[in-house]
Design goal:
Elements lengths: L1 H74 L1 E7 L9 H5 L3 H20 L8 E8 H10 L7 H12 L4 E6 L3 H8 L4 H5 L5 E7 L5 H7 L5 H6 E5 L13 E4 L16 H7 L3 H10 L14 E2 L5 E2 L8 H13 L27 H10 L18 E2 L2 E2 L24 H7 L3 E2 L11 E11 L4 E10 L5 E8 L4 E3 L2 H4 L3 H9 L4 E2 H9 L8 E4 L2 H8 L1 E2 L3 E3 H7 L10 H8 L12 H20 L6
Helix pairs in contact: 3-5, 4-5, 4-11, 12-13, 20-21
């Protein structure tokens, strides 16, 4: 019996040992799984933290990318490169003959480029157009002078100045002598290679297709479709043969550049000495003009004096009566050899004496005596701050024909064609509207600058609701014409504030868009209220049927006399309010004052104390 128990115990022991071994093995497996689980949990936590940081970095990168894209869009521009040394890119004669030809050439070229972009690249017309024209000053100036395009070499410098000053985006750069000077500015380490890969330069218009040497430059980009799409060739009257094989698109501008080669006349002896040191331009001309254009035409040569002024060869001999008349003016009347502009005293307007106006007889003698004297350019006066009252400027007291009080040297009356006048003075009538938010009455006030044409140009617009005083519009207006100045002294508007508003997309572009914005709140039945509202509506070129002018209302209180009834004076008198502190205006402040001034008169009219 005991033996059987021992055997059973031994068997049980063996079984238990096996069970223990299996439990130990299971324990080891569990420990291993727990360790792996802990590792997985730690890895998951690390991944979660890393993902959080990655997401944060991604969000920051996305914000930076959006800021960069917005910055790039604000800084985007279209670049126009012109090799102005070439016959193909010489501007038409009328630009050199005009006193402001450089300015007109720059604006017309910019308009032509914008028209091309509107037709072929509709996503680009809003980008500024940067124009850079390069030319050899010595060579090109003498070439144009000898060809009769300009009167003297120094005229090219004036043309370049006007071109450069036409806009902040236009430059006519006169480089050193030598044909390759302009080439290097455009190619190699110049503008083209600098901007062709620049993302802010959205497109390049390449105006140097006369010289096959530029083909080597463009070939480096001909196999890159993105670069081919970024460059357009501007063809002139002659195009290098190898340019025809390039894959770039092309177009022509026939309204700005000459369509026929410049006929180069033989240089005069006076010019030969100065040109001899610049043989590189002679070789350039030789490569551009045919042999017939270089034949000597002595009978058409232009003689210049030491000052670079043209000398006419033949003037008819004046009559003795003309000489006696001139001698009387010079000796007896003690007038100078040249008519001079007399200084104007503030209190006394000038009285023209008979000697001040050269008669037809004396003018011929004057031509003879002044033949060798250089005549400076006559500049249009843009810089009188005041208005003319009783033939005097209110800013300085000078007579209307007297010298300006700021920058310019002489007065010159504006001369415009009928087409130019009609384009600048197109008026629009308030259209019929079905908008529910059209107001019953609004108050308007505008600030104006002076355009290059001399016209008053809208630069700030403010509209408020008459009944609620809600500000409907208060924005700067970016002019769509060339400006002379912003009249900052009185308007308070600066070019810096203009550019900031444009970059932030807070300004209105042009008076046409300004009118369209006004018509969102104004219909034909809306009453427009302003102080001197004719000036505001004139700057907008706007005709409206219902107007209340507080200047007229106050004039009725003064027997119809509106003189001296400025808004500043009336605000202080009627409203006990000081506005326009200093001299600068604030159109919003003025609009509110105009609204309150009319309300003051309305309340007085209710009780019968005004004739308004």
């Amino acid at each position: 019996m005991s033996g059987k128990l021992a055997e059973d115990f031994a068997a049980f022991k063996i079984a238990e040992e096996g069970q223990v071994a299996r439990l130990q093995d299971l324990s080891y497996q569990i420990k291993d799984l727990v360790g792996k689980y802990d590792d997985a949990v730690r890895d998951l936590e690390i991944e979660r933290v890393a993902r959080r940081f990655t997401q944060q970095d991604a969000d920051e990168s996305r914000v930076k990318l959006e800021e960069l894209q917005q910055s790039m869009e604000r800084s985007s521009f279209v670049l126009v490169l012109i090799d102005a040394d070439a016959d193909s890119y010489i501007f038409k004669d009328e630009y050199y003959a005009d006193g402001e030809g450089g300015r007109k050439a720059a604006l017309d070229l910019s308009d032509e480029v914008r028209s091309f972009l509107q037709a072929s690249r509709p996503e680009l017309p809003e980008c500024p157009i940067v124009i850079k024209a390069y030319a050899n000053e010595a060579g090109l100036s003498h070439f144009l002078a000898s060809s009769g395009v300009i009167n003297a070499p120094r005229d090219l410098v004036e043309f370049a100045k006007d071109f450069t000053q036409a806009s902040e985006y236009t430059d006519f750069l006169l480089v050193g002598s030598g044909k390759d000077r302009a080439d290097k500015k455009i190619s190699e380490a110049g503008c083209f290679k600098q901007f062709v890969g620049n993302p802010t330069c959205r497109h390049i218009i390449f105006g140097a297709c006369h010289d096959n040497s530029y083909v080597r430059l463009l070939e480096d980009y001909a196999h890159d479709d993105s670069m081919v799409d970024r460059v357009t060739l501007l063809h002139g009257l002659s195009v290098g043969r190898e340019f025809r094989d390039l894959p770039f698109k092309s177009f022509q501008i026939e309204n700005v550049f000459k369509s026929i080669p410049v006929q180069n006349l033989a240089p005069t002896p006076e010019l030969s000495a100065s040109v001899s040191s610049s043989s590189s331009w002679a070789s350039t001309v030789g490569s551009k003009a045919d042999a017939s254009s270089r034949k000597t035409k002595a009978e058409r040569s232009v003689r210049l004096n030491s000052a670079g002024c043209r000398i006419d060869d033949h003037l008819r001999k004046p009559k003795q009566q003309a000489l006696d008349s001139w001698q009387h003016k010079v000796v007896l009347a003690k007038e100078g050899k040249r008519p001079r502009q007399r200084s104007i005293q503030k209190q006394d307007p000038p009285v023209a004496s008979p000697g001040d106006v050269p008669n037809a007889i004396g003018s011929l003698a004057l031509e003879h005596l002044q033949l060798e004297e250089p005549c400076g350019p006559t500049l249009r006066c843009h810089f009188h701050d005041g208005k003319t009252v009783d033939k005097k400027w209110t800013c300085c007291g000078a007579h209307v024909s007297g010298p300006p009080c700021k920058h310019e040297k002489n007065h010159q009356p504006e001369q415009s064609t009928l087409k130019e006048m009609s384009s600048r003075w197109q008026y629009s009538v308030t259209p019929v509207t079905t908008r529910r938010d059209a107001r019953k009455a609004v108050v308007i006030d505008c600030e104006m600058g002076t355009a290059a044409s001399g016209d008053c140009e809208l630069i700030r617009l403010t509209i408020i609701d008459y009944f609620s005083s809600q500000v409907l519009i208060d924005n700067l207006v970016w002019p769509d014409v060339l400006m002379s100045h912003l009249n900052t002294k009185y308007s308070g508007v600066t070019w810096k504030s203009m550019r900031e508003a444009r970059n932030a997309k807070r300004c209105i572009f042009g008076r046409k868009n300004a009118r369209a914005l006004i018509w969102k709140f104004v219909g034909p039945e809306t009453i427009i209220i302003g102080h001197g509202a004719n000036s505001d509506l004139t700057s907008l070129r706007w005709i409206h049927p219902r107007i209340i002018d507080t200047l007229v209302v106050e004039g009725n209180n003064h027997d119809g006399n509106t003189q001296g009834l400025s808004l500043k004076k009336l605000a202080e008198l009627r409203l006990q309010r000081v506005i326009q502190k200093g001299k600068e205006h604030d159109s919003l402040e003025d609009a509110i004052a105009t609204r309150d001034l009319l309300h003051w008169n309305v309340m007085r009219m209710v009780v019968g104390n005004t004739e308004a």
